[in-house]
Structure formats: C-alpha cells, structure tokens
C-alpha cells in the first residue's frame, strides 16, 4: 500500500514538473515591438536574444542602430540586461510569457514599459 502511494505521488510530481516546463516560453530568437517615449514619440525596436543557461546575450536594434546586450541574466521567466546607447547605460528588466515579452527600461529619469512579440 505504501509503495502504491509513493509511486503515485512520484508520478504526480514528475507530471507537474513537465507541465511547468512546458508553460515557460523560450526567450531565444527575435522579438519586436514599439517603444513609446515619455514625450509621446514611438519607435520600433527589436531584440535578438540568445540564452545559455542563466546567461543572456544578443543585440538590440532601433532606428539609432544596433547595440549589444551586456550583463544579461535570466532566471526562470525573469531577465535583465543593459545596453549602451551613446555612452549611457540603459537597464532593462523583463518577464517572458508564452506569447510575449514584457519589458521595463529606464532612460534618464523616465520609466518606460512596452511589450514585444516573437517574429515568426
């Protein structure tokens, strides 16, 4: 009897772990969206992410050009990185969802929020 209960509990745990892994989206690849600045101007942006364990690298593209992602970290579905734009570090923080990426960034004193969608 104890063996059946233990086996059932073990199989249930394995099933839940597999389901949790399937829910988390993969950040690898190209994502695009629009960034609305505090003055109301909107710019198209895209990010090419590469994940290796908990290390996040890649590039960010905007009308001003391409910049490398620096100091990138990912843990679960939360991630953070910096990009250097004209000598100024711009910190980014985000969260991965199955169909989108939600990001916050700080430019000077402005806190900006935007959403990215995967390029198919």
UniProtKB/TrEMBL annotation:
Endpoints of the signal sequence: 1-25
Keywords: Signal
Entry superkingdom: Bacteria
Name this polypeptide is given: Glycoside hydrolase
Species of provenance: Mucilaginibacter lutimaris
């Amino acid at each position: 009897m104890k063996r059946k209960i233990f086996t059932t509990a073990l199989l249930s745990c394995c099933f839940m772990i597999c389901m949790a892994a399937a829910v988390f989206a993969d950040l690898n690849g190209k994502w695009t969206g629009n960034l609305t600045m505090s003055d109301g101007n909107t710019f198209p942006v895209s990010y090419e992410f590469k994940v290796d364990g908990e290390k996040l690298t890649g590039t960010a593209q905007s009308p001003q050009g391409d910049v490398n992602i620096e100091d990138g970290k990912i843990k679960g579905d939360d991630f953070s990185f910096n990009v250097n734009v004209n000598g100024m570090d711009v910190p980014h923080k985000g969260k991965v969802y199955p169909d989108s990426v939600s990001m916050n960034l700080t430019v000077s004193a402005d806190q900006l929020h935007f959403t990215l969608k995967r390029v198919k």
